[in-house]
Design goal:
- The longest helix has 17 residues, at 216-232.
- The chain is an alpha+beta fold.
- The protein starts with a strand and ends with a helix.
- It has two domains: 5-58 and 168-316, Nucleoside Triphosphate Pyrophosphohydrolase (Alpha-Beta Complex); 73-158, no CATH class.
- A hairpin with a 5-residue loop joins strand 12 (244-249) and strand 13 (255-261).
- The chain is 28% helix and 25% strand.
- The protein has helices at residues 28-38, 46-49, 81-93, 119-124, 145-151, 216-232, 266-273, 277-280, 294-300, 305-316, and strands at residues 5-12, 15-21, 53-59, 67-73, 100-104, 112-118, 164-170, 177-182, 193-194, 197-198, 240-241, 244-249, 255-261, 283-289.
- The strands form three sheets. Strands 3, 7, 10, 11, 12 and 13 form a six-stranded mixed β-sheet that branches. A five-stranded antiparallel β-sheet has the order 1-2-14-8-9, sandwiched between helices. Strands 4-6-5 form a three-stranded mixed β-sheet.
């Protein structure tokens, strides 16, 4: 194993935040500087967020997470079609890929009703984005996607609400909680402290998938095996999946907060992940704390807001 670079930040009253660098480019001095520079910069309004990020259901295990697929493919609302076409043309030319996503079409309760979509559909319906930056001859400068929908009488519920996962990582079987410094350029929650996460790239109409369950149990096992390998260099046997609260996010995307447990410590996870190019595409720093520290941490450090409120509620319910 590789000895990782770490820094312990004193939060007072016997509480600490441990940070681990996963790359030689972040030495101990730089790691200390990163943590110290953001202490006291919390900007999340947990009370306000609790009104827009709402728990809707919960399942006891990943095998209980059932989907109910609809026929056909998602189509963006007509007023956004020129923007969707422009995104495809622009991003295709840059070598990007319209990966498959599953888009929720109703209440976020099991079985979750979904339809096939693509990542470009999501990109074209992000409420705060400004289509005029790509299509100035169709949309007004400064006009947001939400403005376009409102002006045409289209509900924001018609946006491409792709279903994703927030990975709630519990090292030492719950004696520690793990967050990450997400890499720049991530599709959601880039360049910030958050949980790791993933987007199921399931193709609903793929030939050979079972009509009843359509092989979803097998897909979930594959999905999390790949994600844990990419994020932490972990293998099945290193971790297991616990319960999954489901959340509707009125402004962004619905998601499952997947509780992932491991007997490994955060330090051991950092040692496994250190220097792995796949991991470094996802995040470069790990943050670890005890469950008792989480409340203080959220009061002092900036965490991706929509995830911060979920962390707060889940830990308070423990």
């Amino acid at each position: 194993m590789t000895n990782t670079i770490s820094y312990r930040h004193d939060l007072g009253k016997g509480l600490y935040l441990d940070a681990f660098s996963l790359t030689s480019e972040i030495d101990s001095n730089k790691l200390q500087g990163i943590v110290s520079s953001i202490d006291g910069k919390a900007n999340q309004d947990l009370e306000a967020l609790s009104k827009t990020v709402i728990q809707t259901d919960q399942v006891g295990s990943i095998k209980d997470l059932k989907l109910e697929p609809r026929e056909g493919n998602y189509q963006v609302p007509a007023p956004l079609k020129p923007y969707r076409d422009a995104i495809q043309k622009d991003w295709d030319s840059k070598g990007r890929f319209n990966g498959p996503v599953i888009i929720a079409t109703g209440d976020i309760k099991v079985p979750i009703r979904v339809i096939q979509g693509g990542y470009y559909d999501f990109a074209a319906t992000k409420l705060a984005d400004q289509p005029a930056k790509l299509v100035p001859d169709v949309y007004r400068e400064g006009q947001t996607v939400e403005d376009v929908l409102n002006e045409h009488g289209v509900s924001i519920e018609e946006r491409a609400k792709y279903f994703g996962f927030a990975h709630m990582m519990w090292p030492l079987d719950g004696k520690e909680f793990l967050l990450v410094q997400r890499a720049k350029g991530m599709g959601i929650a880039g360049d910030c402290i958050s949980t790791p996460g993933s987007t199921p790239d399931l193709v609903l109409n793929k030939p050979g998938l079972k009509k009843s369950g359509f092989g979803i149990d097998e897909y979930w096992s594959y999905h999390f095996a790949e994600e844990m390998k990419d994020e932490f260099h972990l293998l099945w046997g290193d971790f297991w999946i616990g319960d999954i609260p489901l959340f509707e996010d009125k402004r962004m995307i619905p998601f499952g907060a997947v509780n992932i447990h491991t007997q490994l410590s955060a330090k051991e996870i950092a040692e496994k992940a250190y220097g792995d190019p796949r991991v470094l595409k996802e995040h470069t720093v790990l943050y670890s704390m005890t469950p008792e520290t989480i409340s203080t941490f959220l009061q002092r450090f900036p965490v991706f807001p929509n995830i911060a409120t979920v962390i707060d509620r889940i830990t308070k319910a423990m």
